[in-house]
Amino acid sequence: LAAAVLVVGLGLVAAWKAQWVLQVEPARVSDAPWMLMLLTISAAISLPLAPFTVGLIVRQKFVVQNLLHLASTILRVVLLIVLLLGVGSEVKWVVLAQVTGNVSLVIAKAVVSRRLIRALRFHPSRINWSLAREVYSYNGWNSLVGLSILIGDSSDPFILKWLANPVAVGAFDLGAIVDR
Predict the structure, then answer these.
(1) Given 21, 24, 73, 142, which is the most exposed site by the fewest CB atoms within 10 A?
(2) Could you tell me the pTM of the whole model?
């Protein structure tokens, strides 16, 4: 929950300063904060629900998990086609479809996981703070290493954005897909 509050705070600042955070062409300046807020909302919903989506893995319901991912992808594609053809071809519809698909997937996985494992509930009184401190102190370094890897992997397009044209950034991103 604290991580979600932090993400919302950072997302609000990023949306407020979207022109400074991202290099946005003047015609898209009004869409950038809106798209950043959608991504922030998605992260804010996904972070607190993440621990409650493990029921599919614990009960080894991989087919159900794959079906949920497929349904989320189909929802994303259908929504994107409807928005692009029905409303107009704008980049904000891609973000809206992506966020809708991701949020619906996380909520569906949480609901199904809750049905598979009835004990999967949040009770603040059952938190063992000494154990949580011990786990976080051990896992803090792993999180720091993971964050540095994430920053290293995702920083290239942002650096290229300032030093290259959009075609070069797109070509780099397509080439980097093979590496992922």
Answers:
(1) 142
(2) 0.68
DSSP 8-state code for residue 164: S
113-147 core/surface letters (b: 16 or more CB in 10 A; e: else)? beebeeebeeeeeeeeeeeeeeeeeeeeeeeeeee
Look up residue 60 and give its two tokens: 């080894």
Of 154, 162, 156, 168, the residue nearest 24 (C-alpha):
162
C-beta contacts of 160-167 below 8 A and 24+ residues apart? 161/22, 161/23, 162/23
Q: How many CB atoms lie within 10 A of CB 27?
A: 7
Give CA–CA dist 34/152, Å, rounded. 27
Question: pLDDT digit string (tens) for 37-55?
Answer: 888 888 888 888 888 899 9
E strand or H helix at 18: helix 18-21
Q: Which residue has the tokens 């809206």?
A: 96
Residue 103 CB neighbour total at 10 angstroms = 19
Both tokens of residue 117? 């494992």
Q: Which residue has the higher pLDDT, 18 or 141?
A: 141
